[in-house]
Amino acid sequence: MSELDALLRNNRDWSEKVRQDDPGFFQRLSQQQSPRYLWIGCSDSRVPANQILGLDPGEVFVHRNVANVVVHSDLNCLSTIQFAVDVLKVEHILIVGHYGCGGVHASMTGQRMGLVDNWLRHVGDVSGKHAERLARVQTEALRHARLCELNVIEQVANVCHTTILQDAWARGQEVAVHGWCYSLSDGRIRELGMDVAAPGQLQPAYARALASMPVSGKRDP
Q: Which residues are catalytic?
C-alpha cells in the first residue's frame, strides 16, 4: 500500500467512525457552516486549529500562513477576514502564534530560507520595532519566545486597523480580536492580554500586553 493509499484508507476509517458516533454529522455539516471563530495561525503542521481547541469540523474558520502574519497587502488573508466577518458573522478572531516557530526564528537569526525570506521581512519589522525590549532578554531561546509573542500582538493590531474590522465595529457588529500563543511542549495556549472588541480598546490593550510580557522565564499557562 502506498502512502497516498494509506491516507485514503485513514479517511474512510475516520468517516465511518464519525458516522457511527454521530449518524447525522455529515448531513448537518453539508448544509451550512456557522462558525463563531476565525483562526489565523501559522502553517506549521504541528498546530491544527480544531484539535487544539477541541472543536469539530465546521466550528472554526481557518486561515494559515508562515508565521501567522497579517499585512494589508495580502488579499488572501484580508478576503478570509472579510468573508468571516461580513458573511459568516464570526464573533471572535483568534491570532494564534506558536513557540518554536521556524519562520520567526529564521527572521530573528538572519537564516536564509529562500523566497519566504521576503515574507518574513514582516516579522523582521516587528523585531526592529521592539529591538530594545528584545535586547533585555538574556537567552536566544527566550528572545525567540518573546518575538513569537510580539509578532502575535502586532498582527492583532494589524487586524484591528483593517477597514473590515473598523466598518464592522462602526455598524455595531460584535466581533473581538484576541492574541494567543500555543506551546508545542505542553499543548497549552497562553493568552497575551491582547483582546480588542472596539476601536477604543486597541491602544490600552496593546500597552497592557507589552507591559505584562516577561523579560525572563516562561509565560505561565
A: 42, 44, 46, 98, 101
Q: Report the alpha-carbon distance of residue 126 to residue 111 in Å, rounded.
A: 16
CB of 93 closer than 8 Å to CB of 84: yes
Q: How many CB atoms lie within 10 A of CB 26?
A: 13
Q: With contact defined as beta carbons under 8 Å apart, do 103 and 86 qualify?
A: no
The string of pLDDT tens digits covering residues 91-108 is 999 999 999 999 999 999
Neighbours of 70 (CB within 10 A): 25
Q: Which residues, at least 6 apart from 70, have a Cβ–Cβ distance to it below 8 Å?
A: 40, 77, 81, 95, 155, 158, 159
Judged on CB neighbours under 10 Å (0-12, 13-18, 19+), 2 is exposed
pTM for the predicted model, two decimal places: 0.93
Question: What does DSSP say about strands 60-65 and 92-98: parallel, antiparallel, or unpaired?
Answer: unpaired
DSSP 76-94: HHHHHHHIIIIIS--SEEE
